[in-house]
Specification:
Helices cover 85% and strands 0% of the residues. The chain has 5 helices and no strands. With 204 residues, the protein is mainly α. Helix 1 runs antiparallel to helix 2.
């Protein structure tokens, strides 16, 4: 009888320990998920504010599109509007893809593979944006001068390009290097949060 009682007590204790392990493991997963989302949320906040500015600028140009009265100004205006709308959307979608990773339901390996893929896509969107920024720098200037000064830069003041392009190029190189480096560090930090789990999750 004593042996049976000991076995029953031992079985009960084993069940309690196993339940405690599962509860602890689930809590760790939930905390990791929250930390991960907060880290990606920093990127989302920066890009979200940038997207709002881009959308506002695109709407402003769109409502004054009739002022662009030559084919090259109209083409520049349409390119600028498309850039200001579609690139932020593409970047925000890549961020949301990272945020949607479900650490709790995925295995450790699946989580790392999925995040590595999504991180690569996000950093690609940033590099694409950098290259397009140099094109936008040149294309948008005639549009801005036409809308705010009512002047065709190619007719009245083409000399402005001689100092505008070098100065803006230096600024873009510095700003792009700083911004891209910051995002690489933030996403690398998110990777470390996931790597802290170390082992595959067992919630069953």
């Amino acid at each position: 009888m004593e042996l049976e009682e000991m076995q029953a007590i031992w079985s009960q204790m084993s069940d309690q320990i196993e339940n405690q392990k599962r509860l602890t493991n689930k809590l760790i997963m939930e905390m990791t998920q929250e930390r991960f989302k907060n880290k990606i949320g920093i990127i989302s906040k920066y890009e979200g504010m940038g997207a709002l500015i881009c959308f506002a600028a695109a709407i402003l140009i769109l409502f004054q599109l009739s002022k662009l009265d030559t084919w090259y100004l109209l083409t520049s205006g349409i390119f600028t509007i498309a850039y200001l709308i579609f690139l932020p959307i593409y970047i925000l979608r890549s961020i949301n893809t990272m945020k949607r990773i479900n650490i709790i339901s995925n295995t450790y390996k699946e989580t790392l593979i999925e995040y590595a893929k999504n991180r690569k896509q996000f950093l690609f969107s940033q590099r694409l944006g950098i290259y397009l920024n140099f094109i936008l720098m040149i294309v948008s200037l005639p549009v801005i001068i036409k809308l705010f000064k009512d002047e065709d830069i190619f007719v009245t003041n083409v000399e402005v390009l001689y100092w505008y392009i070098p100065i803006m190029t230096l600024f873009l190189i510095f700003f792009s290097k700083w911004g891209y480096g910051k995002y690489k560090r933030l996403t690398a930090s998110a990777t470390k949060i996931l790597e802290e789990l170390q082992e595959p999750k067992t919630l069953s």
